[in-house]
Specification:
With 170 residues, the chain is mainly beta. The protein has a single domain, classed as YVTN repeat-like/Quinoprotein amine dehydrogenase (Methylamine Dehydrogenase, Chain H). It has one helix and twelve strands, in the order αββββββββββββ. The strands form three sheets. A four-stranded antiparallel sheet has the order 1-2-3-4, with no helix packed on it. It has a four-stranded antiparallel sheet with strand order 5-6-7-8, with no helix packed on it. Strands 9-10-11-12 form a four-stranded antiparallel sheet, with no helix packed on it. Strand 2 and strand 3 form a beta hairpin. The longest helix has 16 residues.
Length: 170
Protein backbone atom coordinates (compact mmCIF):
# COMPACT_ATOMS: atom_id res chain seq x y z
CA UNK A 1 0.00 0.00 0.00
CA UNK A 2 2.86 2.40 0.80
CA UNK A 3 4.41 1.74 -2.62
CA UNK A 4 1.16 2.55 -4.41
CA UNK A 5 0.73 5.79 -2.43
CA UNK A 6 4.35 6.78 -3.11
CA UNK A 7 3.97 6.06 -6.84
CA UNK A 8 0.81 8.19 -7.02
CA UNK A 9 2.57 11.06 -5.25
CA UNK A 10 5.41 10.95 -7.76
CA UNK A 11 2.96 11.04 -10.68
CA UNK A 12 0.62 13.70 -9.29
CA UNK A 13 3.02 16.08 -7.51
CA UNK A 14 4.91 17.32 -10.60
CA UNK A 15 1.64 18.27 -12.33
CA UNK A 16 0.34 20.31 -9.41
CA UNK A 17 3.46 21.15 -7.45
CA UNK A 18 5.13 23.03 -10.31
CA UNK A 19 2.11 24.37 -12.19
CA UNK A 20 2.56 27.82 -10.64
CA UNK A 21 5.98 28.32 -12.23
CA UNK A 22 6.12 30.96 -14.96
CA UNK A 23 9.00 32.22 -17.04
CA UNK A 24 10.53 35.28 -15.38
CA UNK A 25 13.97 35.91 -16.76
CA UNK A 26 15.09 36.27 -19.44
CA UNK A 27 11.80 37.54 -20.70
CA UNK A 28 10.11 36.90 -23.10
CA UNK A 29 12.01 33.68 -23.92
CA UNK A 30 14.95 31.56 -22.82
CA UNK A 31 16.62 30.45 -26.03
CA UNK A 32 20.28 31.21 -26.65
CA UNK A 33 20.77 34.51 -28.45
CA UNK A 34 23.67 34.86 -30.89
CA UNK A 35 23.37 38.37 -32.34
CA UNK A 36 21.79 41.74 -31.63
CA UNK A 37 21.43 44.84 -33.81
CA UNK A 38 19.98 48.28 -33.07
CA UNK A 39 19.25 50.36 -36.20
CA UNK A 40 18.44 53.30 -33.90
CA UNK A 41 18.47 54.09 -30.18
CA UNK A 42 15.04 52.58 -29.48
CA UNK A 43 14.50 49.77 -32.01
CA UNK A 44 16.55 46.60 -31.72
CA UNK A 45 16.44 43.00 -32.83
CA UNK A 46 18.10 39.86 -31.47
CA UNK A 47 18.25 36.36 -33.01
CA UNK A 48 19.24 32.93 -31.78
CA UNK A 49 18.51 29.24 -31.44
CA UNK A 50 15.28 27.59 -32.59
CA UNK A 51 14.57 30.46 -35.00
CA UNK A 52 14.30 33.00 -32.20
CA UNK A 53 13.77 36.63 -33.20
CA UNK A 54 12.90 39.23 -30.59
CA UNK A 55 12.31 42.96 -31.02
CA UNK A 56 12.35 45.98 -28.76
CA UNK A 57 10.95 49.42 -29.54
CA UNK A 58 11.91 51.04 -26.22
CA UNK A 59 15.68 50.68 -26.10
CA UNK A 60 15.65 47.16 -24.65
CA UNK A 61 13.35 47.69 -21.67
CA UNK A 62 10.89 45.11 -23.05
CA UNK A 63 11.14 42.60 -25.89
CA UNK A 64 8.50 40.90 -28.06
CA UNK A 65 8.83 37.56 -29.83
CA UNK A 66 8.58 37.70 -33.64
CA UNK A 67 7.48 34.65 -35.62
CA UNK A 68 9.52 33.87 -38.74
CA UNK A 69 8.71 30.33 -39.87
CA UNK A 70 12.05 28.66 -39.17
CA UNK A 71 13.35 26.55 -36.34
CA UNK A 72 16.96 26.76 -37.54
CA UNK A 73 19.53 28.57 -35.46
CA UNK A 74 19.70 32.20 -36.57
CA UNK A 75 23.33 33.20 -36.23
CA UNK A 76 23.38 36.89 -37.09
CA UNK A 77 21.09 39.87 -37.72
CA UNK A 78 21.63 43.24 -39.39
CA UNK A 79 19.08 45.99 -40.05
CA UNK A 80 19.72 48.82 -42.51
CA UNK A 81 16.85 50.79 -40.93
CA UNK A 82 13.98 49.99 -38.53
CA UNK A 83 12.04 48.16 -41.28
CA UNK A 84 14.58 46.43 -43.51
CA UNK A 85 16.71 43.70 -42.02
CA UNK A 86 18.49 40.45 -42.70
CA UNK A 87 19.27 37.34 -40.69
CA UNK A 88 21.33 34.28 -41.61
CA UNK A 89 20.72 30.73 -40.48
CA UNK A 90 22.60 27.48 -40.38
CA UNK A 91 22.13 25.36 -43.49
CA UNK A 92 20.56 22.02 -42.58
CA UNK A 93 20.05 21.04 -46.22
CA UNK A 94 18.56 24.27 -47.52
CA UNK A 95 20.00 26.84 -49.88
CA UNK A 96 17.46 29.39 -48.62
CA UNK A 97 19.62 30.48 -45.71
CA UNK A 98 19.12 34.26 -45.73
CA UNK A 99 16.01 35.84 -44.25
CA UNK A 100 14.85 39.37 -45.14
CA UNK A 101 12.12 41.58 -43.75
CA UNK A 102 10.89 44.87 -45.15
CA UNK A 103 8.21 45.54 -42.52
CA UNK A 104 10.10 45.59 -39.24
CA UNK A 105 10.00 41.83 -38.75
CA UNK A 106 6.29 41.18 -39.25
CA UNK A 107 6.99 38.97 -42.29
CA UNK A 108 10.19 37.31 -43.50
CA UNK A 109 11.19 36.08 -46.97
CA UNK A 110 13.90 33.52 -47.67
CA UNK A 111 16.71 34.14 -50.13
CA UNK A 112 19.23 31.70 -51.53
CA UNK A 113 22.96 32.07 -51.93
CA UNK A 114 23.06 28.85 -53.92
CA UNK A 115 25.07 27.05 -51.23
CA UNK A 116 24.19 24.64 -48.48
CA UNK A 117 26.90 26.14 -46.28
CA UNK A 118 26.02 27.37 -42.83
CA UNK A 119 26.13 31.12 -42.65
CA UNK A 120 27.44 32.76 -39.48
CA UNK A 121 27.34 36.50 -40.01
CA UNK A 122 25.62 39.19 -42.09
CA UNK A 123 26.51 42.87 -42.38
CA UNK A 124 25.27 45.73 -44.56
CA UNK A 125 27.57 48.78 -44.62
CA UNK A 126 25.00 50.45 -46.95
CA UNK A 127 21.32 49.65 -47.58
CA UNK A 128 21.99 47.95 -50.93
CA UNK A 129 25.44 46.43 -50.24
CA UNK A 130 25.80 43.50 -47.89
CA UNK A 131 28.01 40.55 -47.06
CA UNK A 132 27.51 37.13 -45.49
CA UNK A 133 30.21 34.71 -44.35
CA UNK A 134 30.21 31.17 -43.06
CA UNK A 135 31.31 27.57 -43.27
CA UNK A 136 34.31 26.59 -45.39
CA UNK A 137 35.46 30.13 -46.09
CA UNK A 138 32.12 31.08 -47.64
CA UNK A 139 31.71 34.76 -48.57
CA UNK A 140 28.79 36.22 -50.51
CA UNK A 141 28.10 39.82 -51.50
CA UNK A 142 24.93 41.56 -52.65
CA UNK A 143 24.71 44.91 -54.39
CA UNK A 144 20.91 44.88 -54.82
CA UNK A 145 19.68 44.78 -51.21
CA UNK A 146 19.73 41.01 -51.00
CA UNK A 147 17.85 40.05 -54.17
CA UNK A 148 20.92 38.24 -55.55
CA UNK A 149 24.15 37.07 -53.91
CA UNK A 150 27.52 36.56 -55.62
CA UNK A 151 30.24 34.29 -54.29
CA UNK A 152 33.62 35.80 -53.43
CA UNK A 153 36.86 33.92 -52.88
CA UNK A 154 38.19 33.97 -49.32
CA UNK A 155 41.32 31.90 -49.91
CA UNK A 156 40.54 29.66 -46.93
CA UNK A 157 38.47 26.62 -46.05
CA UNK A 158 38.16 27.71 -42.42
CA UNK A 159 34.86 28.76 -40.93
CA UNK A 160 34.39 32.52 -41.11
CA UNK A 161 32.52 33.62 -37.99
CA UNK A 162 31.98 37.34 -38.41
CA UNK A 163 31.96 40.08 -41.04
CA UNK A 164 32.09 43.85 -40.67
CA UNK A 165 33.15 46.70 -42.95
CA UNK A 166 33.57 50.41 -42.23
CA UNK A 167 32.35 51.30 -45.73
CA UNK A 168 30.79 49.69 -48.81
CA UNK A 169 34.17 48.99 -50.42
CA UNK A 170 35.28 46.66 -47.66
Amino acid sequence: MKKVFFALCILIFPQYGFSQWTWQNPSPQGNTLSSVNFPNANTGYAVGSFGTIIKTTNGGTTWDIISNGTSNWLKSVCFTNVNIGFAVREGWGSKDNILKTTDGGLTWSYYSTGTYSWLNSVYFPEPSIGYVVGQGGTIFKTTDAGATWNSLSSGTNSWLLSVYFTNANG
